[in-house]
Known about the structure:
With 160 residues, this protein is mostly helical. Helices cover 67% and strands 0% of the residues. It is built from 5 helices and no strands. α1 (3-26) packs antiparallel against α5 (137-156).
Amino acid sequence: xxxxxxxxxxxxxxxxxxxxxxxxxxxxxxxxxxxxxxxxxxxxxxxxxxxxxxxxxxxxxxxxxxxxxxxxxxxxxxxxxxxxxxxxxxxxxxxxxxxxxxxxxxxxxxxxxxxxxxxxxxxxxxxxxxxxxxxxxxxxxxxxxxxxxxxxxxxxxxxx
Length: 160
């Protein structure tokens, strides 16, 4: 197991995950735009929000990959199948707790059940498993994260 392989896997995995989510959006399987969702947390400029959001998403990919790496080291085992399992847990966590509960608490431009009528939110809250962004969103999101995990796990398992 190698930290450099994990970093490379994180880049390739995040690229695959982001491409899958973008393709799903273009194919009308979801209305979710994760880079926009992340970027609008720091700017109201919609164009800059996407650019900043992509950077944030790739940095998050590195962070999550190194969390996977730490667990791989702790259990002294890695591989694409174990990474896919981690990706499944990651995708479910992202859709249920991270984006549904935690993000609306800290995102200054996202509506919530507590938003009052005079307040104008730039984004609607994602809802449980991000279903507010379309019925296909949970499936697309979970499968994309499983792919991310499989790629990270596969790269991490490469001999040093």
